[in-house]
Amino acid sequence: MRKDAVAVRERELRRSCKHLLRQLDIQPPLEVYELCRRLGELRGKPIRLIPWALPIPGPFGVWMSRPHEECIFYQEETTRVHQDHIILHEIGHILADHQDDGGSDEELPDLGPDYPRDEVPRGFRRTCYTEDYEREAELVATIIQEWAVVIDYATPRTPEDSALGPLRSALNPRWGWT
């Protein structure tokens, strides 16, 4: 992809992520499971998050789109912060409307009888970011996590006295997906 096309695609993804997260009313602190629940409701197709002991080396996450659900398998043997990033990366594939390119024959771990290997898109078994769609998925994960960290840090905490809530809202700038 040409450099100017990459910049345009990045702006589109940033705009799209901001619009979606405003629509989902996602506020800090970011709760990835809640984001997935709301996104699944909005899309009319639930997103099932499945921790799995994926072999190392290998993919940290796998997205499988099925007729009745989206399945995201993520490495259970890592930190929660890393798991959140893995899930957001796979969400990036969904949000960027990526399709299987059939380009990778990397061995996929056995996910059990409910998840046959032939249903898992080959193009989403990658463990590196040399393809444009992998970089886009990583960008989506980064956009969401950047927002969550910055906004969570910058957002004033709710006062102890709930009667001060309206005053706090009136005096503070609107934070979030602006």
Walk me through what this model shows.
- This is IrrE N-terminal-like domain-containing protein.
- There is one protein chain.
- With 178 residues, the protein is mainly α.
- The chain has one domain.
- Helix content is 44%, strand content 11%.
- It contains five helices and three strands, in the order ααβββααα.
- A three-stranded mixed β-sheet has the order 1-3-2.
- Strand 2 and strand 3 form a beta hairpin.
- Helix 1 crosses helix 4 (132-154) and helix 3 (80-95) crosses helix 4.
- The two termini are 29 Å apart.
- The mean pLDDT is 76.
Blueprint of the fold:
Layout lengths: L2 H21 L8 H12 L3 E6 L8 E6 L2 E7 L4 H16 L36 H23 L10 H7 L7
Parallel strand pairs: 1-3
Antiparallel strand pairs: 2-3
What is shown here, in short?
The protein is mostly helical. It contains 5 helices and 3 strands. It has helices at 3-23, 32-43, 80-95, 132-154, 165-171, and strands spanning 47-52, 61-66, 69-75.
Main sheet attributes: strand count, strand direction, barrel closure: 3 strands, mixed
Number of strands: 3
Average pLDDT across residues?
76
Principal-axis shape: globular
Computed CA radius of gyration, to the nearest angstrom: 18 Å
Strand order of the largest sheet: 1-3-2
- Which series of helices and strands comes N to C? HHEEEHHH
Helix proportion of residues, in percent?
40-55%
Q: How many H/I helical runs? A: 5
Protein name: IrrE N-terminal-like domain-containing protein
